[in-house]
Amino acid sequence: MSGTLFMFIGLAACCLAPLRRQRRMLIFVWLGIWSAMYGVLLLADARILVAALPRWSGAVLVSLTTVIGYLIFPVGALAWLELSAGRMRTFLKTMIGLGLGLGVVGIGVFFVSGSADALILPISWVAAAGLVVLVVVLAVPRLSRKYLALPNRAVVVAGTMIFAVEALYFNVARLLHYQVYRITGSMGLAALLFSLGYVAAQRALAGERRLLSIENELVIAQEIQASILPSKSPEVKRLEVASAYRPMTAVAGDFYDFIAVDENHVGVLVADVTGHGVPAALIASMIKVAMQSVVACAQDPSQVLSGLNRMLSAQRGAQLVSAGYLWLDTEKGTALYSGAGHPPLLRMRGDRMELIESNGLLLGVLPDAEYPVYAMSIEAGDRLLLYTDGVSEPENGHGEAFGAKELERVVGEKRRSAPGELLEQLVAGIRMWQPAPAEQKDDITLVAIDVLA
């Protein structure tokens, strides 16, 4: 009954671990194997069960119990390794290496000579040394806090002490040639497995709670980031504006904004913070705040980028940002563009396509950086496209980037489509360009502007 119970607990623990593919769940695998191995040893001592087995299975059972006897200590040490830290990990790895080395040699000797106990004594001494060190570390609170990751030390101390007493009795009795049964150590190992399993479950639940808390915070962060992005395209005479925003993760480092001064004037900013996730999203939020301070100079792209740059440069350790800013004046039919280490502005006029690059340093590098401005005329039929490098950098299965050439091809093919339809085709084209199982590698932001009659 005891052997069956240990086998069942072992198999249940091993089945539980794959349900959550996390590093913390590995301890359940080692505890499960440890419990199942001990269950096999107990069942091998059950005479009624052994007698019911076929005669040929006797040799197999002897081989199996010998292998388990040599390897059960390293498996138990691997379970402890998942709860250790610092020098304790180094010590346990050394014990595991010694145990495995002696175990492999002992198994080899058994299969060659038939001697099942040739190296049992050295392994017992190694196991005893490891147990003594564990008991000492657990007994001293300062050492256990330093070298063991235990959410509940008292439970593990109790289980280990019971196991240590049982193990001491079992090994001393065997050395003195007293008759002992494996069932003698069952209570001790059961107490130890329960205590380690309880602590492992506490760690797993704590990890789940942290993950749930992080997910909740990410949802809130996603809502906040969505609130800082434009809710709709600006309404400007003679312009049709569309945007597409595809973050790689829940929150992103890409940012875009419109400064609609009046019905004839609008500024368009597209920015890309280095990195991804929450840190990049925080910088993107800072850019949104900083945009309020440059509204007064919205008609001057150089001043807009310089103002944003001064703000980011003042933040020590701030991530770098690439940005492109476009000012459109539909009354005069002119446009001004300036970039800060940003992919070039794409302008399509008829069948001719042009990449306009007017770059200064990335935002946040030097506080007094200057940003050159490119002036151009706009006329009916022109199409302007601002985008981040998440559009041009995705690679296909051959390692070829989507790049300006593929971007120009899609824009050229869809020159008669509405801006919104063009952006949908571009996003779809980027996804098709990448290998089927590949995930999005960067945030994608696009702003398309058509000049109307």
Explain what you see:
The protein has 453 residues and is α+β, with helices and mostly antiparallel strands. 54% of the residues lie in helices and 16% in strands. The protein folds into two domains: 215 residues, Rhopdopsin 7-helix transmembrane proteins (Up-down Bundle); 221 residues, Phosphatase 2c, domain 1 (4-Layer Sandwich), CATH 3.60.40. A hairpin with a 4-residue loop joins β4 and β5. The N and C termini lie far apart (88 Å).
Largest sheet: 6 strands, mixed
Determine the CATH topology of the largest domain: Phosphatase 2c, domain 1
Please provide the ordered H/E string of secondary-structure elements.
HHHHHHHHHEEEHHEEEEEEEHHHE
Could you tell me the mean pLDDT?
85
Question: What structural keywords apply?
Answer:
14 helices; Rhopdopsin 7-helix transmembrane proteins; single chain; 453 residues; six-stranded mixed sheet
Write the layout of secondary structure elements.
Layout: H1 2-16, H2 26-44, H3 47-52, H4 57-81, H5 87-113, H6 120-139, H7 141-147, H8 153-175, H9 186-228, E1 239-246, E2 254-262, E3 265-273, H10 277-291, H11 301-313, E4 321-329, E5 334-340, E6 345-349, E7 352-356, E8 359-360, E9 374-377, E10 383-387, H12 389-392, H13 403-413, H14 419-433, E11 444-451
Parallel strand pairs: 5-8
Antiparallel strand pairs: 1-11, 2-3, 3-4, 4-5, 5-9, 6-7, 6-10, 10-11
Helix pairs in contact: 1-2, 2-4, 2-9, 4-5, 4-6, 5-6, 6-7, 6-8, 8-9, 9-10, 10-11
